[in-house]
Design brief:
Helix content is 24%, strand content 18%. By secondary structure, the protein is α/β, with parallel strands linked by helices. The strands form five sheets. The protein has a ten-stranded mixed β-sheet. A four-stranded antiparallel β-sheet has the order 16-17-18-21, with helices on one face. A three-stranded mixed β-sheet has the order 12-3-15. Helix 5 packs parallel to helix 7.
Amino acid sequence: MRTALSFLLGALGCQAAEKPHILYILVDDYGWADAGWHRPPGYKEIQTPTFDSLIQQGIELDRHYVFKFCSPTRSAVQSGRNPIHVNVLNLDPTFLNPEDPVSGYSAVPRNMTGMAEQIKKGGYNTHMYGKWDAGMATPQHTPKGRGYDDSMFYFHHANDYWTYYTNECEGRPIVDLYHNEGPGHGLNNSKCSQTNQEGCTYEDTLFADQVIKSVGGWKEEDPPLFIFWAPHIVHAPLQVPQPYVDKFSFINDPPRQMYHAMVNFVDTAVGNVTSLLHQKGMWNNTLIVLHADNGGPIYNTGTAGANNYPLKGGKVSNWEGGIRVNAFVSGGYLPEKVRGTKKEGYICGWDWYTTLSHVAGVVPVDEKASKAGLPDIDGMNMWPYLSGDVDASPRTRIPIGDSVGVLYGETLVGGLIENEYKILVGNLSQSGWTGLTWPNETSSWDPSTSFQICGVTPETGCLFNIIEDPGEHNNLAALKDDIFKSMLSNLTAIKTFTPNRGE
């Protein structure tokens, strides 16, 4: 009752003011060290002038956490739940188990209310462009079914940037590109490739153009916009228009060259949108949220191109490099007093569901999920913290999700952050650190084969003070055995949700 009342009062306060346009950008596989604001000024290899400028005008979110890979983070964002209460698997999006008509599908259970469904209640026009990866087995699992009025997207974890192909059916490639409720007929480039780009449309250009179209078409008498923009970039395959590759020709490592070129592409695309917001007089009433869906992929000797230095590990691991990600908020809607600041309190990807519901003047209650016996929303309202009304984040605890396997298996809690401490359990890959320049031609290290076992005793366990030691170099489990035992007890007491997805 207390929580519902507090949100109702907050929602009524928001309704009294003009509601902002909301632009939510979820960048794929974006490495910590591949952001300009995490490098010294003038560092030539990474060129993110738009992002750097938006941070200077906004708030750098230094402790933003997500799941360690794609679909669970996207499921968490769209549902407002910690992945341990919605989805911790990277299943093929077509998967279904008929024995469980509520939760026996990939990604978000059918009866959970989507973020756009909530925000629509606040009178918004809702748009989704880019990577979905949050289910497709039923109409309710699509962007349209989750509340988006207009959408252009692909369903799977990845596809080809030039042909939009993913997987095959009876020997024929599947074009994974959809516009609203049907295939994006006539939009794909069947004969295009990284080496044959003439007359071709790059996939992320398609998505960026849709964002431009939505912003450009908005009129003063229209409802405010909520745009969820999820670029394919910087996920593999490493592909980008040739002028961006040429711009980074001074980099002699091909994966690193392609990766940085792709980062520059998405930075430029976001810059085009923010310029249009200024031109149309919309900037002063716009809130921008940007974060990565997981840490940068450093596996397979760096062939994916990313770097998370100085953080340990990367995508698919629960080290900081896998779950602590690049993030910021910006836009003229932010109070002037918080612009140009850095917030070091904890924020999670699933907190945006609740936070943006509040901004939209909506009470984020999921009655549909409650009736189906599904877990409640976990997201916290971060707006008082972001707006400067309070000094500290309300979040002091983050259960870290895991699973027996990536594709199948029981939901597990693989770690826990409480205040300044972090405990991990299990057999963790990527157990090491890249250098300032990674990948490179001189290193043969393969993070995929670097494992560390974090046990359940002080002698074998893993405990870190991630505020004093963000690189997770100093294991404190044996030195602070009382804290380790207390956190392990708290971890084991956390309740999880394992959908019945069959065998």
